[in-house]
Design a protein that fits this description.
alpha/beta; single chain; six-stranded antiparallel β-barrel
Length: about 600
């Protein structure tokens, strides 16, 4: 088993040693079987002094010396053929290795080794196997000059940084999967920090169902919740507006058809108050999906007029039901972010600028906190935001770079098409399929990849797989990884905290890494934990405050987001209505107007002639 080094084929460069006291005549093992994808190495469990060491352990990289090249393998199984341990002599073992690629020395003296994922020369029987040296291990994970960021260290050798190609990770979408409590949210926070530092031009929108990311990104983030969100109802498409009206239940086709006819009339009445119910035909005609303001009062008025028509006698029950739905939604305090403003005017520029941080003013991240919002509102709002993100990236001709990060993505992108909200699924699928061409990227975070829409998951080219215990979830990830690294996923059920297996376009080859440790104040959910501890140290629970939050009823005096308070009888679109002074909303920033091509006169609607 132990031979003189002069009798073996030496490496072109000196072999690095883990321990200065190691014998120079020691060879760790020899290849005894190879089938093209895997190899078996014969070795001994003890070193030359007879002490049992951890030289061979599952998950370690090894090197098989072939003279001019060195084949790199991953240890995935170790065992003794006789299943018995000998205390008096050496114990021969069999080491099963999955072949990953090969390392070649550079042509010039002193050049770095080069790693290739393909194998040109396979190990022969008797080929010498060593622990891989540091320079070769660095070559395996070298990104070949691509723009990279460091997110941690290798699990095998903590002296080597774990780097990812940030541009490829973003442009081709990424996914972070792992069971509850393994550190997914902390990994997301770390990745966002590294991404913002490397790409300061990037805007990030986080769909946060647990209200935990705003506190972890205090210097980058702007928080938006149901109280501060200002997303007018007229920016919703017809199917999104119907989802709100029907509150997640099955829609009534007759009522949706009536909305399709009446909403354009209400929009036309807002733009041309003296035109009556006349609807223009032609290239500048309005539809129910056009993001143009209209008044709920005008929509109700159109319904009343249609109910009064003689030919609409049979449609009166449908129209009456539709009117009741609209009035109920407009009066619901949970929907005040849609119907709150009494002053109806074209605020699409302020809305988009605030949500997507244009201009960013040093805070490029928007955290949309969804906890406590009704599911039908969450579905509709996520659909609107995903659709707007894609449209902004498309019509800005790639100058506006957007990342839409979906936490708990299986909630609004379920694998079962009968669940969830179809427009949300379609909007996110469009980003996954076409977004990278226009600078709109998708990040997916989920603890149940088996319940996620396979179409969305298949478009993610970089995965960070943390500990997964469910067999179905493991199978989903196993189907996405290359065959040459399939054995790496055998560790999915037993990985430690902050550990992940990264594979795909964003890394050079499949990599088991340990994320950097974040400061305590930047870990998502830490602020909530501190508040809970303070509550436990205090007196009894404040039941009055809990009930007030439960009822979710706004106070009588409430500040308005983008408009000044006016008399309820005055509405935009009335003949005697005059707009307030320009200072009420502030002048749009120059960066907002020219840098991204979002002209107020051209975005969202056709410019009107004077």
């Amino acid at each position: 088993m132990f031979v003189e080094r002069e009798a073996s084929v030496g490496e072109p460069t000196s072999q690095e040693r883990r321990d200065i006291q190691q014998s120079d005549k020691r060879i760790l093992g020899n290849v005894v079987q190879c089938d093209g994808a895997r190899a078996t190495i014969s070795a001994h469990a003890e070193d030359i002094e007879g002490a049992v060491t951890g030289l061979w352990t599952v998950g370690k990289m090894i090197s098989i010396n072939l003279g001019s090249t060195r084949t790199v393998g991953l240890v995935y199984a170790i065992g003794k053929s006789d299943r018995a341990w000998n205390h008096d002599g050496q114990n021969p073992i069999e080491v099963s290795v999955e072949l990953v690629g090969e390392v070649r020395d550079g042509a010039d003296p002193g050049a770095k080794p080069v790693f290739d994922r393909g194998i040109t020369t396979y190990p022969h029987i008797g080929a010498v196997a060593h622990r891989i040296r540091t320079r070769d291990l660095q070559a395996v994970y070298d990104l070949a000059g691509r723009h990279s960021v460091t997110i941690g260290t290798l699990s095998q050798d903590e002296s080597i940084d774990a780097n990812i190609a940030i541009d490829d990770t973003l442009a081709r979408h990424f996914a972070i999967v792992g069971t509850t409590g393994v550190g997914k949210s902390t990994a997301v926070s770390l990745l966002l920090r590294k991404t913002i530092e490397a790409r300061p031009d990037l805007r990030v929108l986080i769909l946060d169902p647990h209200n935990e990311f705003a506190a972890s990104l205090p210097e980058y983030c702007v928080k938006v919740d149901s109280k501060t969100l200002d997303l007018p109802f007229w920016m919703f498409r017809l199917e999104e507006f119907a989802e709100v009206l029907f509150r997640g239940r099955e829609t009534v086709p007759e009522e949706v058809d009536a909305l399709r006819d009446l909403i354009p009339a209400a929009k036309n009445l807002y733009r041309n108050p003296n035109s009556g119910t006349y609807i223009r035909r032609g290239s500048d005609a309005l539809t129910a999906d056009t993001p143009v303001p209209y008044r709920i009062a005008d929509l109700i008025k159109q319904i009343d007029e249609r109910m009064g028509m003689l030919e609409s006698k049979n449609d009166r029950p449908t129209l009456k039901s539709l009117k009741t739905r609209i009035e109920s939604a407009a009066a619901d305090p949970r929907y005040r972010f849609m119907f709150n403003s009494r002053l109806i005017e074209d605020t699409i520029h302020e809305t988009i600028g605030n949500i997507f941080r244009v201009p960013s003013h040093g805070r490029p991240v928007t955290c949309f906190e969804m906890a406590g919002m009704p599911s039908e509102v969450v579905n509709s709002v996520c659909s609107v935001l995903a659709r707007l993100a894609f449209d902004l990236a498309l019509w800005s001709e790639g100058r506006l770079k957007l990342l839409l990060l979906c936490e708990e993505a299986h909630r609004y992108m379920p694998a079962d098409p009968r669940l969830g909200f179809a427009p949300t699924r379609h909007a996110l699928s469009r980003i996954a399929k076409e977004g990278r061409k226009y600078g709109c990227y998708l990040g997916v975070v989920t603890q149940r990849p088996g319940e996620l829409d396979p179409t969305i998951l298949s478009q993610c080219s970089t995965f960070f797989a943390m500990r997964l215990a469910n067999e179905q979830d493991q199978a989903i990830i196993r189907s996405a990884i290359a065959d040459s690294s399939a054995s790496t996923l055998a560790f999915l059920s037993s990985m430690g905290q902050r550990e992940a297996i990264a594979f795909g376009e964003g890394v050079a080859t499949t990599m088991r890494l340990k994320f950097e440790r974040l400061a305590q104040q930047f870990i998502p959910g830490t602020a909530k934990g501190e508040q809970t501890e303070e509550t436990e140290l205090g007196n009894d629970v404040d039941l009055a405050l809990v009930v007030e939050r439960l009822r979710n009823v706004p106070k009588p005096t409430q500040s308005m987001a983008f408009a000044e308070a006016v008399d309820s009888t005055r509405q935009a679109g009335d003949p005697d209505y005059k707009k307030p002074a320009a200072t009420s909303r502030g002048q749009p920033d120059d960066d907002f107007d020219t840098r991204y091509g979002l002209k107020p006169s051209t975005f969202g609607m056709r410019q009107l002639n004077d």
